[in-house]
Amino acid sequence: MKVFNAVEVMCAAAMQAGVDNVANRPFLLTPEEPTERAVLLVHGFTASPWEMRPVAEYLQTVGFASLAVRLAGHGTYPEDLATRRWQEWRNDVAAGYRLLAENYRQVFAVGVSTGALLLLHRSLTDRYVGLTLISPYLRLRHQLAPWADWLHRFIPYQRANHASTAAPYYYARRPLAGVAQLNRLVAQIKTELPKMKTPTLILGGAGDRTIDVGSTRTLFNRLGAPDKTCHQFGPEAAHVLCAPESPVQGETLRRIAEFFNRQKADK
Fold it and tell me: Taking Cα atoms as reference points, which of 93, 102, 96 lies closest to residue 2?
């Protein structure tokens, strides 16, 4: 299957870009039995494909192949990310979709945070059977985030706190130039939401300290998909619901699989 060769090329490109940690490179997981169903996995801002591995491993057990792409500027160093544009991330998502669409009959997708927004944007062009969006947003929680395009000239980076077990897979410094790109992506998404028709499951947590939780509900309400569901976990649930330390990881993974299986049954 040429998909494996293509993923090897992706990994080689990541290595050349400076992704030294193998866990931060793109990966493909496939179930033991042949399948026609594949899921594109897209990580969030300052993260890496490692963030999506729990999702891929779970979906593998229930009959889905999964491809986790790496967004440009991630898995390398913060200075690299500071030079990137959201359109580059969009192109990375598009390349992942094309690869899966050429090799599988049904393509689904899961994105975390910024990865979820990129999938929404691409859903106007790419034909996903179903989308799961984990912690999507229309506004970041930090009150100065809207001013990032101006602030990054004076304050290039913001410190980020991560659990010690996750530190090798996330940046400890967030480039504000990158946050400015997030703002531009959100502005684009706002104009497109009513046109988006792909069946969509949105999952969020009331304990999220990264995004404005209320903006997730606003996004859901504006989404044009006739088949859409939004579930908010309680205050125990933070931003990355699928993370190993998340108390709702198991339910998050189960809901993803159930939603995708329902879309398969409807086809």
Answer: 102
Output the tens digit of pLDDT for each of the chain's 267 residues. Answer: 688 899 999 999 999 999 999 999 999 999 999 999 999 999 999 999 999 999 999 999 999 999 999 999 999 999 999 999 999 999 999 999 999 999 999 999 999 999 999 999 999 999 999 999 999 999 998 877 777 787 788 888 988 877 777 889 999 999 999 999 999 999 999 999 999 999 999 999 999 999 999 999 999 999 999 999 999 999 999 999 999 999 999 999 999 999 999 996 544
- The total domain count for the chain is 1
> Could you tell me the CATH number of the domain that includes residue 38?
3.40.50.1820
Listed residue (62, 199, 19, 178) closest to 113, CA to CA: 178
Sort 91 into a burial class: Cβ within 10 Å, 0-12 / 13-18 / 19+: middle
Look up residue 93 and give its amino acid.
V
